[in-house]
Amino acid sequence: MEQGVVLTMRNISKNFPGVKALQNVDFTLRKGEIHALMGENGAGKSTLIKVLTGVEEFESGEIMIDGSSHAIINKSPQEAQKNGISTVYQEVNLCPNLSVAENLFIGREPKKGGLIDWKTMNKRSKELLESLDIHVDVTMAIENYSIAIQQMLAIARAVDMSAKVLILDEPTSSLDDSEVEKLFVLMNRLKSQGVGIIFVTHFLEQVYAVCDRITVLRNGELVGEFTTEALPRVQLVAKMMGKDFDDLAALKKEGEEAKAAGEVVIKAKGLGHRGTIKPFDLTIRKGEVIGLTGLLGSGRSELARSIYGADKADSGELHVNGNKLHVNAPLDAMMHGMAYLPENRKEEGIIADLSVRENLIIALQAKRGMFHLMSKKEQEDFTDEYIKVLQIKTASRETPIKQLSGGNQQKVILGRWLLTNPDFLILDEPTRGIDIGTKTEIQKLVLEMADKGMAVMFISSEIEEMLRTCSRMAVLRDGSKVGELSGSELNQESIMKTIAGGGK
Fold first, then answer.
1. SS3 276
2. How far apart are CA 315 and CA 329, in angstroms?
């Protein structure tokens, strides 16, 4: 191995039934560097990590680790650990009821006379954490600490097991900005101690804040390895998507040229749900995309849920296409041309063990009723059509949806609701946690649907994304609708002022 390199992967190939997950991929990690592994969902990032850590076998290629004179094949994560490769996942795998010290030394507790030497274990835990500038009570149960602290403890455990290579797989997705900063301080500390860190993330800003190099994968193939300063963001996105990237601002032009909104589809008057959303008025017209913006917890999802009947409104009136409607349950809303893609697709969206086909047709079948069952041929035709239209990456229509990447699962759920041919579509965080390419596709699709006359409600935590896609925005704060913005008012400054000042 060349000087300063801690890990080399050469010509790695891995196939799943019907899918070439990795094709002759190379990856090089140097000592004391933070190296971003980037690519859209389905690009092969997770598979490369699984091959490296012994979760999956690979067909061909070789892996060399610093200090080994020959290629290694990890048969399990435990073997990878012995070879100095540790992984910290998005979902922290710690035991919440055990103490910090017990979690740090689980399976390798110091013993004295055959019994656990608590004094030594607590002392070593304290020393380890202090060396990483983590200050917690090592005798406290880990459940008493935030997700961010738990992430850092999982990293500390990995490092203490003499990790030469530390893999951080989406570690920041559930952290706030200040917690991310603390994590970056810890990563830089480890980097200065010579640990090689592989950082898998969806957040471009974080890559440019903390990474030295970037390796980009696309469709299971290596696009290239770049130093961070030599790769502008627009170029990174272009390499991930495999096309010249017409800056996302171009999307807005399409939106601005869209025809004027038509007749009223939804009219809410004094609609509210005690304890979640205060009474609000809102009018939504055919062919417009209305955004709901506000800080987390401001009531965006709750407003949408009260219109759809997921939370039954206990005040006010709802008119749909000019008719007063009592929505007692989501099925009532669906029967009157509404569709709702929920924020939590894992719990409220996908049915993990069912196939892509079954997940896609389930809403239309519910709308038609059990006495009008769809034929298998009709189901298959619909599924094939939406796999093509939405460019869903799946081995087949019968693949269990849980085997798809997050972005492709999201597309299936979107297809499910488009299939019901709604007049009004609610999209709650439709692009959260998915890659930039799929984000752009979904944003374009939203604008196309509005152009064809559908009314769309779009909820996103990313204001830039809202500004690109929405023709009007309702601003929420603390469970109240505090303003509406359109035209020249649609800019970051106006939104922030409205959120802060609540000006109607």
1. coil
2. 15
Q: Cα–Cα distance between 279 and 314 in angstroms, integer? A: 9
Sequence-ordered list of residues with C-beta below 8 angstroms from that of 285, at least 6 positions apart, any chain: 261, 262, 263, 264, 265, 455
pLDDT tens digits, the chain, 504 residues: what are they?
A: 567 999 999 999 999 887 889 999 999 999 999 999 998 767 899 899 999 999 999 999 999 998 777 888 899 988 998 899 998 877 677 888 999 999 999 888 989 888 999 999 999 999 989 888 888 999 999 988 887 888 889 888 888 877 899 999 888 766 777 778 888 998 999 999 999 999 998 777 789 999 999 999 998 999 999 999 999 877 887 788 775 544 444 444 444 444 455 799 999 999 999 878 999 999 999 999 999 988 666 789 999 999 999 888 999 999 999 999 988 888 888 889 899 888 765 556 778 889 999 999 988 888 888 788 889 999 999 999 888 878 888 989 999 998 888 778 888 888 888 888 889 999 998 887 677 777 787 888 889 889 989 999 999 877 778 888 999 999 998 788 999 999 888 887 788 788 776 444
Strands of 472-477's sheet, edge to edge?
338-341, 424-428, 455-459, 289-293, 472-477, 480-486
CA distance 253 to 12: 42
CA dist., res. 407 & res. 429, Å (int)? 12
How far is it, in rounded angstroms, from Cα 406 to Cα 52? 21
CB 307 within 8 A of CB 265: no
